[in-house]
Structure prediction request, 112 residues.
Amino acid sequence: MVDCHAMRESMTLLLTESLDRSRREQTHEHIESCAACTAEWNAYKETWSLLGALPELDVPARVRDQFLAEFATPENVVAIRRRSSARWLAQAAAVVVLVGGSYYAGNRTHRV
Prediction:
């Protein structure tokens, strides 16, 4: 029998679609066959839905500054920088060139 505790740990990954196919199927099968896990899964889904409906709020500057002053040290703060759109375009162009070149090379070698 499958351990309910392990299945409950998988439920959060199931919500974020982070499980591989076989584990996802195993988790769904267990949820359908176990009343306690069904109730737990329904609670997870409801909470996930409610969290998704909450508005995103900006952190007030004074709260952010106070937090950073108390907890931020260079070794535990990682700067997150957004990639510029030019970089995304360059990466997309590189993919198009590679795929197109591969297609062209593959068709060219088969024309005998």
Notes: The two ends are 60 Å apart (CA to CA). The chain has two domains: 4-53, 80-112. The chain is about 70% helix and 0% strand. Residues 80-112 form one domain.
